[in-house]
Design a protein that fits this description.
The chain contains 12 helices and 19 strands. It is of the alpha/beta class. The chain has 4 domains: 115 residues, Rossmann fold; 121 residues, Transcription Regulator spoIIAA (2-Layer Sandwich); 92 residues, Transcription Regulator spoIIAA (2-Layer Sandwich); 52 residues, Nucleic acid-binding proteins (OB fold (Dihydrolipoamide Acetyltransferase, E2P), Beta Barrel), CATH 2.40.50.140. α11 runs parallel beside α12. The longest helix is centred in the last third of the chain and has 24 residues.
Length: 421
């Protein structure tokens, strides 16, 4: 039988889907991107738009595949526990994803639909272990789940539960396995990655110290980390270990202290500024990308101007811009919303600033030598990324999953073009 997975959302979801597919593959099922007998949809609920996209995709699959087994799981289900769809065979939240294979095989025997959700979110880490990521040059490793920050706009603590960590020895074993299978770059993922270890008497920097010792690992990337987790221990590991790439994604969310307080973020702009300065003392050319929410309830024109000014000062390499999305059940849902037309105009302004900052950052690398991990070859060109996540195009066919030295010659749109040296 053929199995197809649809992933919506973050790198954690991508990792979970890869794990579920590996279970089916190891039991003789054929994995496909075409029409299938079994569909697995891992949903996202970070915004209302994410919910809508998840529902639309599920409806499309059900409509076009009336005889297929359809499994729906993930954050959208946890956020909307009353979700029902006649065409869906199995509904799961964020627990029991590791049991999808046995649930599907049981359904194939009995044709009894299942809906598995739990009121108690005091869960253990659901261990998953992958050896390959078929469609990726870099491998993801999920080291952590859950979040206890309870930012006033965010539904995720209610869909993912409390902080919990994968055992250190399991993380190291999984990365060793991936490296032995040819992966040169590993990305550590989690819902609140930098909080790793708080529940198992270790810390994220302690884990990093062990990972960088793994023979054959060329690059270690962190998917996202909060500014409050960039403590002295972390900075020391960053300084001493060039295997950790010069790219950090550090969510800001707002450059106004007034808005940060309303968001229930755990820092203010002076703290954020000082940390970024310290990071750049260690890695002057580091790429720092961020997330900013635009049009948070009660955000004034002055608040937004503060965000624009602060973002410019921080010289981010790229800003991921999110218009505020009201989520029922969160504290900000009861606050007065910014009109949509104002929100749209602010989004436009911040995207324009992001584009300007990105070009400024990219220009720094013209005439410099960089190391590129080749990811794909198309139209007689090789495409890959540097450690600081610059996309580079080389007019030459090179072997995917190899690291090559490249001299940057020009910038076209947001792509750097270079020649092998």
């Amino acid at each position: 039988m053929k199995v197809r997975a649809v992933n919506l959302g973050c790198k954690v979801n991508a990792y979970e889907v890869e794990y579920v597919l590996s279970l089916f593959k190891n039991h003789g099922y054929e994995i496909t991107n075409q029409k299938a007998d079994i569909y697995i949809v891992n949903t996202c609920s970070v915004t209302n738009q994410s919910d809508a996209k998840s529902r639309k995709e599920i409806n499309r699959i059900v409509r076009e595949n009336k005889d297929a087994v359809v499994v729906v799981m993930g954050c959208m289900i946890e956020a909307h526990k009353d979700y029902e769809n006649e065409g869906v065979s199995i509904i799961l939240g964020n627990k029991d994803k590791s049991k999808v294979l046995e649930l599907v095989e049981d359904y194939l025997k009995t044709h009894e639909k299942k809906k598995l959700l739990y009121k108690d979110f005091d869960l253990d880490f659901e261990d998953m272990f992958i050896e390959n990521m078929e469609s990726h040059t870099r491998a993801f490793v999920k080291i952590q789940d859950g979040c206890e920050n309870f930012c006033s706009y965010c539904i995720i603590p209610y869909t993912r539960g409390r902080q919990r960590s994968k055992k250190k020895e399991v993380v190291l074993k999984e990365i060793n396995c991936l490296v032995n299978n040819g992966y040169k770059e590993v990305v550590l993922t989690g819902i609140h990655t930098g909080h790793y270890g708080s529940d198992i008497e270790t810390t994220f920097p302690e884990l990093l110290k062990e990972i960088v010792k793994i023979k054959g690992l060329k690059r270690l990337r962190i998917s996202s980390i909060e500014i409050t987790e960039l403590n002295d221990d972390f900075l020391k590991v960053l300084e001493e270990n060039p295997i950790i790439v010069s790219h950090l994604h550090i969510p800001l969310q707002a450059g106004s202290d007034e808005v940060l307080k309303k968001m229930n973020r755990k820092y203010l702009t002076p703290y954020y500024r000082d940390k970024i300065k310290n990071i750049r003392k260690i890695r002057p050319d580091i790429s720092i990308t961020t997330d900013i929410i635009v049009g948070f309830p009660e955000e004034t024109d002055e608040n937004f101007k503060e965000t624009l000014d602060f973002a410019r000062e921080m010289e981010f390499a790229k800003i991921h811009v999110f218009p505020y999305s009201k989520r029922e059940g969160t504290k900000s849902a009861s606050m007065k919303e910014v009109p949509d037309n104002v929100k749209k105009e602010r989004v436009k302004q911040l995207i324009s600033l992001s584009n300007e900052l990105e070009i400024n950052y990219l220009k720094k690398f013209i005439d410099k030598e960089v190391e590129v991990l080749i990811e794909k070859v198309e139209d007689n060109k090789s495409i890959g990324h540097t450690g600081n996540y610059l996309k580079v195009i080389i007019d030459e066919e090179l072997e995917p999953n190899t690291l090559v030295k490249v001299k940057i010659k020009s910038l076209e749109n947001t792509n750097l073009k270079g020649v092998r040296v």
